[in-house]
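anyone seen this seq b4? input:
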Amino acid sequence: MINAVRAAIFCQIALLLYHQVTTLFDFYPFNGARHFERKQRLAECSVNGLLMILAPIGFGFQIRALMIFGLVYYFLLFAIELVIWWVPYLITPTGRGRSIYNWLLACATSNFGKGDTLTHWRKIHERLYRGTLTVLPDRGRGIVPNVEHLVLHVWTLITAIVTTAAWRAGV
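predicted toks r here
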């Protein structure tokens, strides 16, 4: 049980640190931080840092509410990452599916402006992530998850699984 909790806390803190470092610092061509304004980077670090620190505090101090938050949060975060990066990489939603996808993408990115949310996200992606390292082929849809985000997504999923395992181990 103690090893499961330690593993969960390690994964949670590693994810937090990875996110904060890759958001704040320019490692081009690994990330696109240079294309964000300082104010944008600080806002993203503040909001996500606050959300990401809650689970390790919960598991570290056995605060049940924060532990439950972590159980939900990491899977929700992974779902958001899928909506933002993987749906537009793998498919181009059309018809009613496009409307539903645009709503999900708007919620995931907090972009509730007028117009097609996916088209807007493609423009943002081009501006922020063009030229960053990718290992996946360009499928002609305008969104290709770069290496920075591949690592983030895999680590988010690992963290979700390890957090769940720690919870199930009887924390």
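The CA atoms of residues 5 and 166 lie 5 Å apart. The chain is about 75% helix and 0% strand. kinda curious what u guys think
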